Amino acid sequence: MEESSLLTLVPSILSSAVVAAGLTALVTWRLGVKGNEREARKDENEAEDRLSARALEWIAQLQAEVNALKAEWRSVWDYKVSLEDHIDLLEDHIYKQKPPPPPQRPKPPTST
Amino acid sequence: MPDSSVPAWARHILRTARVAAGSFAVLVGVGDVVNASDVITRAAGPGFVAWWAWISIVSGAVAVVSVVLHRWRWELVASAILVVALSTRATAVWLTVDDGYRLAAAAGTSLAATLFFIRTVDLIVFGVKASAIPRARLRLRRRKVERDGGV
Lengths: 112, 151
Description:
Structural class of chain B: mainly alpha
Oligomer: heterodimer
Order of helices and strands of chain B: HHHHHH
Strand content of chain B: under 5%
Order of helices and strands of chain A: HH
């Protein structure tokens, strides 16, 4: 390759960096990003902090919902087990031909 | 080297270094305008030498002023232009490496161009990150306008 063509090729290729820089500058200016670097970086940091805080809040909310669902599932499971025990008691009551009243049915959990 | 991730004292050092880098870019241009190397002029031609020299002077001065005034967009564009000017100069120096003891000079000019390139990429990344929230807001506003039928 000739020297002059190489000297033309290098700036031609690297001018894409200038185009990218110019586009970034133009787009950020149109979008209202501050021109002062200190203020722009401060804004960016604050935005990141706000997003992190919201994400943490959301995670805490989801965790609370999961805990509530687990507690509800636990009480339903306990009720199911008590119903199975109640059937055993009823069978025993019938088998022994005991008079009424039959053993009392367990109360369902209040939250369901 | 994103400024937001470093402490204040390091930011001051980085700014000082960037002012120094811009000043050296101006000096490169002044040197090539006032007393250009014969070897470089033979390799690239006086037109090319004058072209990158004046670009280095103007862009270097813009870079220094923008660093002092914290104007990151001006610094971004000036750094990108300096990458082109210094890389072209580095190419000319590399082309004359055969003449003798010019390897260090060629590598030094390439190093300067690379440092400005790092700053350019850093500022482009910063620009993309800083515009993420405004872009999201714009998208939401557009979606709202489409949903509400332009009301």
